[in-house]
Design goal:
The protein has five helices and no strands. The protein is mainly alpha-helical and about 90 residues long. The model has no long low-confidence stretch (mean pLDDT about 90).
């Protein structure tokens, strides 16, 4: 096709985006927003998202957002720490 100028193409895309938004209900808009945020966070590291949360919010928010470990996860972590401790001759 390719008949639109760059400026016209931008306007065309904006018109289409506005039509989608105008026709969507609140649940659809929230889902679109969630999907876009997840897409943007898909390829960033843990450190990058932690830094963003700390820049925009605070330590408490970061803590609230962290997944809660199950009892079996705590047991595995403790087990792994004990194994590492033993491997290093009691020196960590």
């Amino acid at each position: 096709m390719g008949i639109l100028s760059e400026e016209q193409l931008i306007t065309f895309k904006e018109n289409y985006a506005n039509m989608i938004i105008d026709r969507a209900d609140l649940d659809s808009l929230m889902q679109m927003c969630f999907d876009m945020l997840m897409d943007s966070y898909h390829n960033i590291s843990e450190d990058e998202i932690v830094d963003e949360i700390l820049d925009l919010y605070d330590e408490e928010t970061l803590s609230d957002l962290m997944p809660v470990k199950s009892a079996s996860q705590y047991q595995r972590d403790l087990y792994n720490e004990v194994i590492e401790y033993q491997r290093h001759g009691g020196d960590l």
